[in-house]
Amino acid sequence: MTVLLSEQRPIKSSEDVVGIRQAVRQRAIELGFNLIDQTKIVTAASELARNTVQYGGGGAITIEGLDDGGRRGLRLTFEDKGPGIPDIQLALRDGYTTGGGLGLGLSGARRLSSEFYIDSRPGEGTRVTIVRWR
What we know:
Elements (H helix, E strand, L loop, with lengths): L1 E10 L2 H17 L4 H20 L4 E10 L2 E10 L7 H4 L13 H8 L2 E7 L3 E9 L1
């Protein structure tokens, strides 16, 4: 697998979330994603970026375009140094929230992605990586 492009951006505020949405959409367009796949990856990115600000106290995203033998994809890695997630399986359950929202952020992002990985340790932070293939 070849990384075609790589960009890192800070996630500290709701304004950063808006910028990330725009950057992810632009990369998806450049990689030839159709409108449905663009919408799915942008929606997942928005949810995860918002979680990074709200629960992780801010962090960063790495945006990578991928080529895997002609198959194009977009990999997004969100990292924070926040409190971590004590029970990942519970956090991935639809409707579970600690912040008063709908509880669809992590589970929704997982459904909108081709690949979904999460690593979190209480007191150390969280890393969520998603890939969407076109």
